[in-house]
Design goal:
- It holds the Pfam family Fe-S_biosyn.
- This is HesB/IscA family iron-sulfur cluster assembly accessory protein.
- InterPro entries: ATAP, ATAP_core_dom, FeS_cluster_insertion_CS, HesB-like_dom_sf.
- The chain has a single domain (4-120), classed as HesB-like domain (Hypothetical Protein Aq_1857, Chain: A), CATH 2.60.300.
- The protein has two helices and ten strands, in the order E-E-H-E-E-E-E-H-E-E-E-E.
- The chain has helices at residues 18-30, 80-86; strands at residues 4-6, 14-16, 39-46, 52-59, 67-71, 74-78, 89-94, 101-105, 111-112, 118-120.
- It has a seven-stranded mixed sheet with strand order 1-5-6-3-4-10-9. It has a three-stranded mixed sheet with strand order 2-7-8.
- Strand 3 (39-46) and strand 4 form a beta hairpin.
């Protein structure tokens, strides 16, 4: 595996922190998926009080038109429509008293709802 690739034309769609990659890889392996082919799908969907929200799920393999970002051993798949909203974002894993989970730090966001679950670009 290479340290970083992006099949979206050279510009990195998303940066993946080491901790986020480690956490996601553990989850992928616990699902019995092959980390050489499978990955984390990061997408944007309609919803939330600000209009858009992030979605994540594990996929066995990328779709033909996906951008494939590979960093720190994790493959992240992003569909073309979502690339428009999350280009330049950073996927990180945060832990703490309020709970642990993945967080997308998106430089394209112009406003978020009060709870931080949805956004507008």
């Amino acid at each position: 595996m290479s340290a970083e690739t992006d099949d979206a034309g050279g510009e990195t769609t998303v940066t993946i922190t080491q901790q986020a990659a480690s956490e996601a890889i553990q989850l992928i392996e616990s699902e019995g998926l092959d980390t050489d082919k499978a990955g984390l799908r990061l997408f944007v969907q309609q919803g939330g009080c600000a209009g858009l929200s992030y979605g994540m799920r594990f996929d066995h393999e990328p779709e033909p038109d996906d951008a494939i970002v590979e960093q720190n051993g994790l493959r992240v798949f992003v569909d073309p429509a979502s690339q428009n909203y999350i280009g330049g974002s950073r996927l990180q894993y945060e832990g703490g008293l309020q709970g642990a989970g993945f967080h997308v730090d998106n430089p394209n966001v112009v406003s978020e709802c009060g709870c931080g679950e949805s956004f507008r670009t």
